[in-house]
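Shipment paperwork, digital attachment
Item: protein structure file
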Amino acid sequence: MTSAQDLAFTTLYCIIVFLGVIGNVVVITIVRKMPSMHTTTNYLLMNLALADLLTLLLCPGLYDFALTNVRIQGLSGHVICKLFAGNAVVPVTINVAVLTVCTIAVERYLALVKPLRNLRLTKDTVGYVIALLWLIALLSCVPDIQANTFDTESNKYPCKRPWSLDEYSLHKPFIIFTCVCFGFVSSLVLLACYFEIIRGLYFTKTICSESVGTEAERKAKKQLASLLIRLTVIFIVCTLPFSIYFMFLTFLGANFVQDNYEKLYIVHRLARFLLFSNSFCNPLLYALQSSNFRDGFKRIFKFN
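Attachment content:
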């Protein structure tokens, strides 16, 4: 029987998936079709939009509650668990988004804080970097992909999932590795890069001093930095609670989890919803904060 909680989360997921898919498709279209948007940063933003788009399209939050006590069999069961309900593919796209956001932060740090060093990405190398990000994300999720299996014996949910209250205790090393690397370390990288950018913009004035570029160039640098800082804040707010939650779980005893299962399950659903919400928020940030994306939207869709 579908509960009020299930209906509430399904409605919320429907909203972020529908609007998020549209927003990410628009971002990808703008970067692809406008030559003026063909920069290394925008290519990385397009890759982020692609990862977010796939995350939303494969999001199991819309329907996974309905699979409880549903009997799926054979090959269809394995396909459904690996690609959709079991969350075997979504961690790859989420990790790609994390790595891409970190790469953008480092690239902007090098461009704005260390502009004289020959360490920046170019249009010729950014494609290789993007391919490397996808490879690293895929390799990091191999244990996750293997552990997501069709559960032929369960009387409840038909898939075994490491990122669930029922299975997490069997995959603690993998969960700790993922939370530390893609949750905490990535957040520290973002904070360190943007702290230096903010310091250079507003305190030491080394990034946008009067002797560096034209007024328009200085304004563009501040606007881009502002956009990326907002992107980072939303990223941390949406993704870090999920890592904190599972790190907390790894230190709990099995008896405590079973005794407080319902409460922990609600927190799990909230943390996971926040995680998927990041893929919905990103294109909104582009549209609201970047004049280049707003202008590109108007040109492509013929708005005056």
